[in-house]
Design brief:
It contains 11 helices and 12 strands. It is an alpha/beta fold. α2 packs parallel to α4, α4 packs parallel to α5 and α8 crosses α11. It is globular and about 55 Å long. Bound molecules: 2-amino-3-ketobutyric acid (AKB).
């Protein structure tokens, strides 16, 4: 029986992941934690604890209290926020990860943490970026994520911790808004399209990035965690993606359902520069071959579902 501790449980991934894990393994088997008292549905229906991941002793105490066997470490700053506060990003993204890995080592837990397309930089191949290639990111977030992948490899090799990870692209979801990412324009476009019929994008026309719908991201985490460890050659971390889009392609998809939707541009030079340093599209063959990654949502299916779900929640 699994006993899973999730950090950053009120965030974009955490809110949906905690609900999915509770549905699968039982409500009391998943301990949601976050630095803030939670308004999120993730906290309801199962144990919740306040936790600052930079406090290693508190982390360990909560993990021991619930006798956990799995750590899912999500607490981190995303790319744009990390760029605005790089020192704090290093402290939280690296300090929190080190503490989470130490808890996993001490209590012999299985371990998951997300990496990102942010691990790539201007020197990486832009199209169908390979699983193994040059990783010279230009952002603090990307540097944290590359160091994080290597640290997870180290804990696997040196201490035998069963570490696993995914390089997420932009994640599109309607339940909890993302905070401080570069790919967030895609989520905002849906909400603004329904709210006022227009959206001003901070990412430029023609800047392509990979994206994936949240149900596919949740499914991928669960599938990877349940995969046969012996088959995971690239365990920290796999390229995953379901679509490669720019603002124009997304707007065209929205217009199929909202024909009068208007897209304008007001480019944010910082986020545009980050986006341009990231891949246009990823090669996901390692994830497909090693543990059967197969996203269900195409751009069309994702856009239809997003618009229906947001409309249903905001009548
Ligand atoms: C961000 O934009 O920072 C994240 C990511 C791609 O890691 N969504």
């Amino acid at each position: 029986m699994k006993r899973i501790l999730v950090t950053g449980s009120s965030g974009q991934i955490g809110s949906e992941l905690v609900a999915a894990l509770r549905a699968r393994y039982g409500e009391d088997q998943v301990i949601a934690t976050d630095i803030k008292p939670s308004q999120s549905p993730a906290a309801a229906g199962g144990p919740f604890e306040l936790l600052d991941v930079n406090n290693r002793q508190a982390f360990l105490d909560i993990a021991r209290k619930y006798n956990i066997d799995t750590v899912i470490h999500l607490a981190a700053l995303l790319s744009a926020t990390a760029e605005a506060n790089p020192l704090f990003a290093w402290e939280l993204n690296m300090g929190g990860l080190l503490n989470a890995l130490e808890v996993a080592r001490e209590l012999k837990c299985q371990f998951f943490t997300p990496s990102s397309i942010g691990v790539f930089g201007p020197d990486s191949p832009k199209d169908l970026t390979p699983q193994l290639t040059i990783q010279r990111p230009i952002t603090m977030y990307g540097i944290n994520k590359v160091a994080g992948e290597l640290l997870c490899d180290y804990y696997y090799r040196k201490f035998g911790v069963d570490t696993r990870g995914l390089r997420f692209p932009g994640l599109i979801s309607y339940l909890t808004p993302p905070g401080g990412g570069t790919t967030d324009y895609a989520v905002a476009m849906f909400f603004e399209a329904l709210r006022c019929g227009e959206y001003s994008s901070y990412i430029d026309k023609g800047t392509f990035m990979d994206m994936m719908y949240m149900p596919d991201a949740i499914e991928a985490i669960i599938q990877l965690m349940e995969a046969d460890s012996a088959k995971l050659i690239h365990r920290n971390a796999y390229n995953v993606s379901a679509m490669s889009i720019d603002p124009e392609l997304l707007a065209a998809e929205i217009r199929k359902l909202l024909p009068s939707f208007k897209l304008t541009y007001q480019i944010d030079p910082i986020r545009e520069q980050i986006a341009q340093s990231w891949p246009n599209s990823l090669d996901t063959s390692a994830a497909r071959n090693e543990w059967g990654f197969k996203p269900r949502y195409t751009l069309e299916a994702m856009a239809q579902d997003m618009l229906c779900q947001i409309a249903a929640r905001n009548p």
